[in-house]
Amino acid sequence: MTGGRDEIEALIALMARLPGLGPRSARRAVLHLISKRTQLMGPLAEAMAGVARTARECARCGNISTAPICEICEDPKRATGEICVIEDVADLWAMERGHAFKGRYHVLGGTLSALDAIGPEDLRIPDLLERVAAEGISEVILALNATVEGQTTAHYIAEALEGRGVTVTSLAQGVPIGGELDYLDDGTIQAALRARKAF
Amino acid sequence: MTGGRDEIEALIALMARLPGLGPRSARRAVLHLISKRTQLMGPLAEAMAGVARTARECARCGNISTAPICEICEDPKRATGEICVIEDVADLWAMERGHAFKGRYHVLGGTLSALDAIGPEDLRIPDLLERVAAEGISEVILALNATVEGQTTAHYIAEALEGRGVTVTSLAQGVPIGGELDYLDDGTIQAALRARKAF
Ligand SMILES: [Zn+2]
Ligand SMILES: [Zn+2]
Description:
The structure is a homodimer. Chain A is built from eight helices and seven strands. Chain A is an alpha/beta fold. Chains A and B meet through α1, α2, α3, β2 and α5 of A and α1, α2, α3, β2 and α5 of B. The site of one zinc ion (ZN) has 8 residues of chain B, from α4.
């Protein structure tokens, strides 16, 4: 027996750890990759190695980037007075696909959860409070998911920002009860942003 | 703007070409990979590059391997007189998971299809006929999917092998109508192999 099958098995086992892929779909994916090893598998391996080497969290907002400070934070055309607070980078990407928000972001990295013992210090909440002061922010838009955890976190942040001279708003119209931002179409996100209301 | 987001977008676009992953699940997978770049993304990129470099089709049976002749064809403990004919490598893996077949394989690489203009020469059917003669094969087990195309292909091969002194059998009991091998549990495959009947 050569080691060939073992290498392929090891690859399948790694692929099966991706969200949405089980052992069976990982096998299918690997066979597909092998059948397209020049056009797809080689370039994919290279792209993955490149991103693994260079991707990091933006030190300011928590977005994923290959620079210490991400392109959104560095973009001089983005409004400096507004911060949109989202739970994770997938939600940031969902907001960007809406092309409606022209300010900057702050990625919390999750939501408060008594059950999982996740407190404000486990998220980027202290960083947010610092940014609001240091960057002269006039509006914080809470774009958290319409889940219990998301709304608990939104209330916590709104209270923490009270008396700091900043308007706190939240996405309103269009976000369905229990819905998650990353599942919404672009139009819904645009409408929700336009109709944002004082929190 | 730095090129960082572009690299990540390029990776997402490549991931979205995997079977079972759309643009949305590709984004989720890439974010997951980035969040686990040391434990998962780096090793996965490396494993993929390794397999892309070394994987090839066995020159004898069409199985995927890293050697010119695969480990099953080279294994002296496998019975030499029996060939099991399957449509693709996923089906070969499904047969191997059943641990019931101890002979060798022949991967057709698809099925005959008038609609898609796939004839015997587009599959490994001529190679199969050569192997039957050259390797002194006594039994050819047709383990093709129970689909119209699979059964058309089975009939074609059975006819082509007529008068060549070889017994042609097919998987029988346990393969559901319209079912595909790769979806069956191991026990069903074992039962179907044990109850194989003359074709
Ligand atoms: Zn940033
Ligand atoms: Zn082989």
